[in-house]
Write a structure and sequence with these properties.
The structure is a homodimer of 250-residue chains. Chain A has 250 residues and is α/β, with parallel strands linked by helices. In chain A, 48% of the residues lie in helices and 10% in strands.
Chain lengths: 250, 250
C-alpha cells in the first residue's frame, strides 16, 4: 500500500512529548471507528544529542541523528513529516532539504492557530528555540508584538522546569513553568505561545489558569495534520515523492 | 546506527490503545533524561480490517495489513516487535514467521507477570481473544486453573461495557465490566487477567476494588520490553537478524 497518506512523526525530543502529540492527534480526530483515525509512523528514538546543550555550545550536533530519523520515516512511506519539538525546528531547513516527504512547520501551524491577537504575545521557549527566532520572525512579519523571558527567568525557572518534566516531575515542572508565564504576563503578554512541548503538559498538571490564554503549538500541529489528512483523504492517492516544505493552509 | 536495540510497535488496533502502551512504557522506564528512554518505532496505521468481525466470520482478513506493518518495522531497524492488542495475537505465529526481528508475545509477558497463582485465574477478554485460547493454553500448560465469562455475561456485560468505553462512557463501562469481574469471582477466580485494552481503563474509572487482583497485559508487555532493553543495553550491540519468537525472561 505505497503512497497512501501517512504522517511521519520525528519524535524522541522528548519521548513523552511525542506520545502526548500522538494522544492529542487521536483525541482531535473526528473518527467513529479505528479505521477512520490518522495513519502515523513515529520514530521515537531519544538517543539524540541534547539540542539545548548543543545550541549553548556544548556537545555533539543532534543533526545526524535527526537526519537518520527523517530517512527512516521516508523509507517507511511517510507522505508528510512533523516534529513535535520546537527547539528541533532550529534544524528545520536542513531536515526539509533532505526529505522527499514535505515537512509541516510547527511555527507556521501555531501562527495559523493564533489568528489575530489584540495584545503582545509571550513566548515560552528554550534559549535555543528563542535564538532561532522561529516565532519572533513570524510574529514580526504579521506586526504582532511579542515578549520574551529574561535571562534570569530562563535560568531560574524555564530550564529547571523543563528538565523536571523530562524526568517525570510534573508538579515541580508545572510550578516553575507557571512562574515563566506569570513573568511574561507582568510584561504585558495577553496570549502565550507554549513553544516547548514540556510546557503544556506541566501547566495541565498544576491546572494552571494560564492555560486559558495559551496556544499549544503541538495542538496547532495536530490541526495542521488533520487539514492535510482531510485533503489527502478526499483526493486520489498522491505520489510519495515531493520535496522540501509544505504550505500549511490556515 | 544500524543494529542498536529498537522496539518496533505494531499498533493501530486500536490507535488509542497503542498510544496508551507507549505512555505506560515511558512512565515505567527508570530514565533521568531523554536519552535513557527506550527507542521505539511505532506503526500506528489503523486502516486494518476489523479483527473481531473477521473472527466472527465477516469481512476481510487483517493479516495482509498486519504483515505490511511488520515489514515496515523491520525495514526501520526494529530488533524486537510488540503488538499491544490481545485479539491481534490470533495471528501471532504468521507474523512471527515473517519477521526477522523476534516478536514478544503479550500472553507470555502476562504469565511472567502473574507468577505463581494460588487459585483460579479469571480471563476478561473478547469472544475472539477467548476463541484463540491465548491465555487458556498458557495457564493450562502451567497447571493453573482458569475461569471464563459465560455467553450470557459476554453478551449482557462484556460487549456493552467494551463499547461504552469506546464511546467514552467510562462510568457505565466500568460498572458493566466490574460485573464481568464479579461473575468470575463468584466462579472462584482469585486473580483476573484484563485481556482487552478497554477493561483496565474502565475499572480505573470506577475505582474498582478488582484492580488489586488484576493484571494488565499491556503493563506486562511494558515490563517485557524493559527486560529486553536492559539486557540489550548492557550487552554489545546485537546483530539485527534473528528469527521468529523471543523468549520472555521472567
Amino acid at each position: 500500500m505505497p503512497h497512501s497518506p501517512l504522517i511521519g512523526v520525528l519524535g524522541g525530543m522528548g519521548p513523552l512529548a511525542t506520545v502526548d502529540f500522538l494522544h492529542k492527534l487521536i483525541l482531535a480526530t473526528p473518527a467513529g471507528r479505528d479505521q477512520e483515525h490518522v495513519a502515523t509512523v513515529t520514530w521515537n528514538v531519544p538517543q539524540i544529542p541534547d539540542r539545548q546543550h548543543y545550541l549553548a555550545g556544548h556537545g555533539d550536533s543532534p543533526l545526524p541523528a535527526m537526519l537518520h530519523g527523517i530517512r527512516q520515516l521516508n523509507a517507511a512511506g511517510a507522505t508528510r513529516i512533523v516534529i513535535p519539538c520546537n527547539t528541533a525546528h532550529h534544524w528545520f531547513d536542513a531536515l526539509a532539504a533532505a526529505s522527499p516527504a514535505p515537512l509541516l512547520h510547527i511555527a507556521d501551524a501555531t501562527l495559523a492557530a493564533l489568528g489575530a491577537s489584540d495584545g503582545p504575545v509571550g513566548i515560552i521557549a528554550s534559549r535555543g528555540a528563542l535564538q532561532s527566532g522561529l516565532y519572533q520572525q513570524r510574529l514580526a512579519a504579521r506586526g504582532i508584538p511579542y515578549v520574551l523571558p529574561s535571562e534570569a527567568v530562563l535560568a531560574q525557572a524555564f530550564t529547571p522546569g523543563c528538565y523536571a518534566v523530562k524526568r517525570n516531575a510534573l508538579q515541580l515542572g508545572g510550578e516553575l513553568l507557571q512562574q515563566v508565564g506569570e513573568a511574561l504576563r507582568q510584561h504585558g503578554a495577553t496570549r502565550l505561545i507554549l513553544a516547548c512541548t514540556e510546557v503544556p503538559l506541566a501547566l495541565a498538571a498544576v491546572n494552571s489558569p494560564l492555560q486559558a490564554i495559551s496556544i499549544d503549538p503541538a495542538q496547532a500541529l495536530v490541526q495542521a495534520v488533520l487539514r492535510y489528512w482531510q485533503q489527502a483523504g478526499s483526493a486520489a492517492p498522491e505520489p510519495g515523492a515531493g520535496s522540501g516544505r509544505a504550505t500549511v493552509a490556515p
